[in-house]
């Protein structure tokens, strides 16, 4: 499991803007958030929250990256439909999910299955993991993350 105060797990992944590498983002804080599925109500609300506050995140020196196992085609449709102004990473093999331990056993109505744990990670400009939120509740979450970015 990634540990606070330690180097965040490095990655190189395909996104809606091409290949993105964590090391290529040095000098900026990174908000890396994992969500279950494009175009679903909670995920749309969360993405639109980040979209609406993107300028404030940028002013605080941060970039936003969303991650799900959805395809690039699905991500591109999501970006277009919701006018998202940040990149979405595709992780169909769940390698990034594994690195950040967000692919977990879930239970719903007595059924057990594997799925994405809605989580957000704040990585500082030096690539160090500074904060994490797991089992995120969408309401009010984006504001909490922005507050943490500003406190870096």
Structure characterization notes:
By secondary structure, this protein is α/β, with parallel strands linked by helices. It has one domain: Glutaredoxin (3-Layer(aba) Sandwich). The protein contains five helices and nine strands. The strands form three sheets. It has a five-stranded mixed β-sheet. It has a two-stranded antiparallel sheet with strand order 1-2. A two-stranded antiparallel sheet has the order 6-7. Helix 3 links the parallel strand 4 and strand 5. The longest helix is centred in the first third of the chain and has 12 residues. The model has no long low-confidence stretch (mean pLDDT 97).
Please render the helix and strand layout as text.
Layout: E1 12-15, E2 18-21, E3 29-34, H1 41-52, H2 54-59, E4 62-68, H3 72-82, E5 87-90, H4 95-99, E6 103-108, E7 111-116, E8 119-123, E9 129-133, H5 141-151
Distance between the termini: 22 Å
Mean pLDDT metric: 97
**Tally of DSSP helical segments:** 5
CATH superfamily: Glutaredoxin
Number of strands: 9
CATH class: Alpha Beta
Strand content: 25-35%
What is the helix content?
25-40%
Shape: globular
> Any idea of the CATH topology?
Glutaredoxin
Can you write the helix and strand succession as a string? EEEHHEHEHEEEEH
Query: How would you sum up the major sheet?
Result: 5 strands, mixed
**Uncertain residue ranges:** none
CATH architecture: 3-Layer(aba) Sandwich
Structural class: alpha/beta
Please indicate the count of domains: 1
Radius of gyration: 14 Å
- The neighbouring-strand order within the major sheet is 5-4-3-8-9
């Amino acid at each position: 499991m990634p540990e606070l105060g330690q180097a965040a797990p490095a990655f190189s992944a395909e996104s809606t803007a091409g290949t993105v590498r964590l090391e290529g983002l040095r000098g900026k804080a990174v908000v890396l958030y994992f969500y279950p599925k494009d175009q679903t109500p909670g995920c749309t609300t969360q993405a639109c929250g980040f979209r609406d506050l993107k300028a404030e995140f940028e002013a605080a020196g941060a970039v936003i990256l969303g991650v799900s196992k959805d395809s690039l085609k699905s991500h591109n449709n999501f970006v277009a439909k919701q006018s998202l102004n940040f990149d979405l990473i595709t992780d169909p093999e769940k390698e990034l999910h594994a690195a950040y331990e967000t692919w977990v056993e879930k239970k719903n109505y007595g059924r057990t299955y594997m799925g994405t744990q809605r989580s957000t990670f704040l990585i500082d400009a030096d690539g160090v993991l500074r904060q994490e939120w797991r089992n995120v509740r969408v309401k009010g979450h984006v504001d909490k993350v922005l507050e943490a970015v500003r406190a870096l």
